[in-house]
Design a protein that fits this description.
Helix content is 39%, strand content 22%. The chain has 195 residues and is an alpha/beta fold. It comes from Microbispora catharanthi.
Length: 195
């Protein structure tokens, strides 16, 4: 059974990302029991700004936090990235986490669930470019949660409550199917790379 990591891409206090990741995990558990989905929260790793002496592609990781991060990511066959949009891109914490390691990302599949004023579509496109460089195959299906339509707010300055429309759940289910299928399809490629 493929193992899929749901990566929470923001570490900001008051973020909405954890709630979105929990929704993804809930839908996955209910509708897609063909894979094992787990939340990987960047906030739990407290990675500093990239502090490795050697480039990630060398595989020469010198710090314990890098080795720990690499071991966690290596366990997964695919990913669902949950990202907001910060200034037309992904959060710095997510870019930093991607840059720390290299081979552990290679030959795996990923889907993107974005959230923001415009569904984080620009951040998702930027993330696709980064993932391509890391040899991660991104699926076409994408969830774009709008702060206007998919969250309810009692106080405008609070994070709000996630309330995605029914069409979002359907799109998410399709995304999860795609990630699972592509993760399985890439397994021989991963195994060949290790041989």
């Amino acid at each position: 059974m493929p193992k899929i990591g749901i990566i929470v891409g923001s570490t900001r206090p008051g973020r909405r990302g954890r709630a979105v990741a929990e929704w993804v995990a809930s839908v996955a558990a209910q509708e897609r029991p063909t894979a094992d989905f787990e939340i990987v929260d960047l906030a739990d790793f407290a990675l500093p700004l990239l502090d490795e002496t050697h480039p990630a592609a060398s595989g020469l990781y010198g710090n314990a936090h890098t080795t720990r991060w690499a071991e966690v990511i290596a366990r997964y066959d695919g990913f669902v990235f949950v990202t907001p949009e910060y200034n037309r891109s992904i959060p710095g914490a997510l870019k930093n986490a991607l840059d720390f390691i290299y081979a552990e990302w290679n030959n795996k599949a990923a889907g993107i669930v974005g959230y923001g004023l415009h569904g984080a579509t620009r951040a998702a496109e930027h993330l696709r470019l980064i993932l391509a460089e890391l040899k991660v195959a991104t699926v076409r299906t994408q969830v774009a949660l709008s702060l206007h339509d998919d969250f309810t707010f009692s106080v405008p300055t609070e994070p709000g409550v996630l309330a995605p429309g029914p069409h979002q759940r359907k799109t998410l289910a399709a995304l999860l199917d795609d990630v699972v299928v592509w993760s399985r399809a890439l397994q021989p490629v991963r195994e060949g790379a290790l041989a």
